[in-house]
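[job 4471] stage=fold_predict status=RUNNING
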Amino acid sequence: MATKFPSFSQGLAQDPTTRRIWYGIATAHDFESHDGMTEERLYEKLFATHFGHLAIIGLWVSGNLFHVAWQGNFEQWVADPLHVRPIAHAIWDPQFGQGAIDAFTQAGASSPVDIAYSGVYHWWYTIGMRTNLELYQGSLFMLILSAWALFAGWLHLQPKFRPSLAWFKNAEARLNHHLAVLFGFSSIAWTGHLVHVAIPEARGQHVGWDNFLSTLPHPAGLGPFFTGNWGVYAQDPDTLGQVFGTSEGAGTAILTFLGGFHPQTESLWLTDIAHHHLAIGVIFVIAGHMYRTNFGIGHSIKEILEAHNPPSGTPGDLGAGHKGIFETLNNSLHMELGLALAGLGVITSLVAQHMYAMPSYAFIARDYTTQAALYTHHQYIAIFLMCGAFAHGAIFFVRDYDPAANKNNVLARMLEHKEALISHLSWASLFLGFHTLGLYVHNDVVVAFGTPEKQILVEPVFAQFIQASHGKVMYGFDVLLANANSAATMASQNIPGPHYWLDAINGNTDVFLPIGPGDFLVHHAIALGLHTTTLIL
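[job 4471] inference complete, writing structure tokens
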């Protein structure tokens, strides 16, 4: 006998009205309201959804690869990335009249197409893809990965393969595994791809499934690695005149610390990126041994948190510090989710900034629409993630917070200081609002009336000082690397090997974008949004 939808709520399944369908859809992911739900079953379901999420990401990437390979112009774009406009996909719309057909038949296509402003062409080109066949292979690989993720999600819901509640709440083991395996080894594996595939392709040497086992990424092979002579891998880097994708001006170095941008692509040096991923991967593998599990080494998170106390007799009595936070965090899914969303929100916002300030992908800096689109896209994602962080943080305080378990610790004291926090956020938001918008209105009005010299322009002197200390000379600060006679400059000149940092920071392809009064206003406008959001949520 067929089970009526929704199977997770027998009470709802008996409802004879359409309420059964609408409420069933509405509560499909409200696992806690489902029949027979236990804490262990809840964690198992959430764990399985993570595999579903991975499958969706894999399908999304696979779809991008497939449609560009099928309907795009990747191979033509690869031949001339600066002048050929990348095609995202064809437009099949029966309502298009001749005018629309003519308008959207662009970029050398014979029928209506959409132009790609996602940066995927630059991404795939930089990591070593050159042909449609490689895009199809990538698409198929991501499909297989998605199917594997779906199978893994199903498998971990089966009785024999269900993890226990104790397994889910073993924070130290989970952190070790994620730090070492997820971040550490995957980062080192990505270095492997860059060194074995992307860097040779950037130097005009094809590496594929047919020859990757027989092509040495470096002439010296693994000899320098096993003898400890690692500096060999940084010798003979690409020259400033290297033509990307060809052997002209190419070197043999695979792990460098050149600094700055490749002059032609206006993106970070691939050998610098490979070095970065190897270094950070090694650091994460070491970090994966940080917490104590079955072995007697490492830290206990509970002990670390309980040790985070103000010294006794501190003026103003700062309370019980982080006592009780480990149990609170480990037993509240909403607090865990809130912290995870907040962390990802900040990281995504930083990604938006770094993707245009320090582009990793070849020639993407010259595609201004894509740069603007990617910045906006990642800031929007950051906004949604931060809204989720505040929402789940609030649910934690309303539903999961236990005053008895958090007596006088930082959570309790934050709640006690709620009025002070809100009033401070209030005046900060009002100050930023009146001053930032007031300056914008004033400057707009005087420019509109033809007297731009009456603008109130405030230079961001502190940020300019930071840039100057890193070597940018345009601001006139006589400090550190901006001073030719300083100890920092002298030391930088004695670093072995070529380094392009000081040339790049003051050159045409600017690593540090010049900042002025416009940036000062924009950053205060962003601060206004952040403070007001925090105040409201």
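[job 4471] summary: The beta strands are 87-90, 113-115.
[job 4471] exit 0
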